[in-house]
Description:
Layout: H1 2-13, H2 24-50, H3 58-68, E1 73-74, H4 90-95, E2 102-105, E3 119-121, H5 123-129, E4 132-133, H6 136-151, H7 156-166, E5 171-176, E6 179-184, H8 187-198, E7 209-213
Parallel strand pairs: 6-7
Antiparallel strand pairs: 1-4, 2-3, 5-6
Helix pairs in contact: 1-2, 3-6
Amino acid sequence: MDKVLETIKEWACNLIIxxxxxxxxxxxxxxxxxxxxxxxxxxxxxxxxxxxxxxSKGVLLDVVGLWVGIGRFTTFYEGIVNKHYAYPTYKQIxxxxxxxxxVGFSNYLNFITLKGIFIRYRELIxxxxxxxxxxxDRYRKxxxxxxxxxxxxxxxxxxxxxxYLWSEGHVVTTWNDMEITYTSDxxxxxxxxxxxxxxxxxxxxSACTINLVYSE
Length: 216
């Protein structure tokens, strides 16, 4: 990379008109500009690769969420809160088929970052704070919905089309006077609609009431 940069700098310096080409000050300015442009391009490349709604995970996805104005926490808990836990079975460990309340065992890669927790349960934070942490997949869907809300005109057609595409056909919108109804035919989108409504990111024209109809 250093050789490539030096080649680019020499090429750029040779573009200086002949009467100023001998000036070391001019050449230093050109070299500095090449370094600056490269640094900016590198930063943009890192942003594209590391802070991308489709690619980012964990903390990096949290940063994307903060950019668009939506956090990962919700008060909607899915499932039955049960204080009596069971260790995963051997087959669960083999298949990585833990139940929704089981995150699995810590391992040598994450043991230190997890502060040595031997087995982890998602409910623990719910018990402690009354809040639930959204998974990356669910958080990503809600970030995309917030991006849509931030960027489209809230006409009926725009909302209808955007919600249908966002939900992969599982949610449709219908209209009445000053009222929009979101109807879901899938349990996963039932939950996403509840959280989206809590976070006030469902699409609606001004002053319209929002109704939610769930699959169950």
